């Protein structure tokens, strides 16, 4: 029981890193109300590279090696279908379009404030809906971190890092409308931070729903499904955002840089962690 509890604590700590990254996104907004969206796009491209590398070169690869090509693929595409259904019911919120930010800069702060006064209620509502949407999106991410941690520290750590980078723009997506609507930096920061706490909540729920001793085959299959979830999340939500804000050429470079970085970190962690921690 002690071993399971320690696994839950490790997964909680890792998911907190991912969850609190929404606060970093909120800080972008609080410090500068027109955040550098190109930098956010590049960051999202880099995170997409990390996620694709984890999905295909680590999780799906290991599942196919452990339980066979057919079973590995079935589990992988089960994850894809699961998250496609989730995404269908909970549309992924977006950061304010570049044109809005640019026109706000051109019209000056007063013009921007007048527009926001007229639509304050709708904008605040959109911020709250965004926060709810992101919280629901963070649930399966928390579950993914927990399942990764059950497999070994290396897998959990890599997933937490990729999810943390993915959550920064999500924090911006929550904080931007809330800040414009309320003119309160604290409200924007608070709501973005709270939306990130769904991730450790996902860990707690899955930790007590799943039996403490999963068979290795089921665990490998579930991790293959996590790979499918991550691949869908990346191609459906992260890449389009990276293309929009950083431009296609720059975003693609960032993606491959992210993949190379994750491949190097996978190699480093495999060779440096003790055998029992890097299964």
From TrEMBL:
It comes from the Eukaryota. The keyword Transcription regulation does not apply. Keywords: Membrane, Transmembrane, Transmembrane helix. The chain crosses the membrane at residues 6-30, 42-60, 72-90, 123-139, 159-179, 191-210, 222-239, 251-269. One of its GO terms (molecular function) is zinc ion transmembrane transporter activity. It is a multi-pass membrane protein. It is found in: Membrane. GO terms for cellular component: membrane. This is Zinc transporter ZTP29. It comes from Sesamum angolense. The lineage of its organism: Eukaryota, Viridiplantae, Streptophyta, Embryophyta, Tracheophyta.
